[in-house]
């Protein structure tokens, strides 16, 4: 009897964790559909992971409009500060000087939540109307409000000078 109760509790915890994980479903319980995939490369030739762009309906006229989710699954260790430094670098490249300075403190605060990761870890950025969340392995790390913040932050991957042009093209299916 005790064994059966423990198993029931474990199953309940597992199901609860899946369905309450950040970005699993939307407010109206629509599941995410993977619309596009791309390799994530370091130094343009070393594959370090895979990125996916997901939406509730992939036929949207603009894949970057909310709700939208970017997931990055990594195949190797990457230090958290590497994410933070790269993000700030590409934000500065993709924003006007005035916009970068306006959001710089918020970008740094958001980037402070990146952690060291290893093989199999998944970072997820979920853009919903008026908010952007960062999660690691379905554990919420950070939330920022504002469509301007979210759109600016996503320029790391979708701006004029993105982290990777092939990644941008693959995810936006261009």
**CATH level 1 class label:** Alpha Beta
Please give the largest β-sheet. 6 strands, antiparallel
Mean pLDDT: 85
- In percent, how much strand structure appears in the residues? 25-35%
* Helix percentage: 25-40%
The CATH architecture category equals: 3-Layer(bba) Sandwich
Report the order of strands and helices. HEEEHHEEEHHH
Count of strand segments: 6
Span of the ends, CA to CA: 57 Å
Radius of gyration, rounded?
Answer: 17 Å
Regions with little confidence, pLDDT below 50 for 5+ residues: 2-26
**Oligomeric status of the shown chains?**
single chain
- What's the CATH topology name? Chalcone isomerase
> What coarse outline follows from CA principal-axis ratios?
globular
Main β-sheet, spatial strand arrangement? 1-2-3-4-5-6
Name the structural class: alpha+beta
In words, what does this structure look like?
A 6-stranded antiparallel beta sheet has the order 1-2-3-4-5-6. By secondary structure, it is α+β, with helices and mostly antiparallel strands. Mean pLDDT is 85; it is low at 2-26. The radius of gyration is 17 Å and the shape is globular. It is 39% helix and 27% strand. It has a single domain (22-171), classed as Chalcone isomerase, CATH 3.50.70. α2 runs antiparallel to α3 (97-111). One of its GO terms (molecular function) is intramolecular lyase activity.
């Amino acid at each position: 009897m005790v064994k059966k109760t423990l198993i029931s509790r474990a199953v309940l915890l597992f199901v609860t964790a899946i369905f309450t994980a950040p970005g699993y479903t939307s407010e109206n319980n629509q599941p995410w559909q993977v619309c596009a995939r791309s390799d994530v490369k370091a130094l343009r030739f070393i594959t370090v992971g895979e990125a996916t762009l997901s939406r509730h309906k992939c036929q949207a006229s603009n894949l970057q409009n909310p709700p939208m989710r970017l997931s990055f699954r990594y195949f190797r260790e990457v230090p958290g500060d590497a994410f933070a430094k790269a993000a700030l670098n590409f934000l500065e490249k993709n924003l006007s000087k005035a916009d970068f300075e306006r959001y710089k403190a918020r970008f740094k605060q958001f980037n402070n939540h990146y952690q060291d990761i290893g093989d199999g870890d998944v970072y997820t950025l979920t853009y919903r109307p008026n908010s952007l969340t960062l999660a690691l392995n379905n554990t919420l790390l950070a939330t920022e409000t504002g469509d301007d913040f979210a759109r600016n932050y996503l320029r790391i991957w979708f701006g004029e000078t993105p982290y990777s042009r092939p990644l941008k093209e693959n995810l936006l299916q261009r």
